[in-house]
Amino acid sequence: MIAAISDPDMPSRGWQIFFGIVVAIGGGVLVWAPFDSIAVLALTAGCALIVIGLLEMITAFRVRRSTAEVRDKMTGLHASASEFRSSRGDLAKGA
């Protein structure tokens, strides 16, 4: 957080300051009320894991779709190259 405050050209500076403040407040709550905050900490961690899992699944489907598109394009390029080679061979035989 200190680096984000001291360097105005730092990328995502606002987000780093925001998350630094949130983490500092969360740490203070854990220190001042450790037993009361255990349930909140578990709930927060559980929600974070659910969100991360959903994002991982979405990313996996996007990667699979992108991989299929690249494979289709590469297959098309391979077919075009084969046709080009065969047409060059036909020209060489005819000459």
From TrEMBL:
The keyword Transmembrane applies. Keywords: Membrane, Transmembrane, Transmembrane helix. The chain crosses the membrane at residues 12-32, 38-61. It comes from the Bacteria. InterPro entries: DUF308_memb. Pfam families: DUF308. This is Membrane protein.
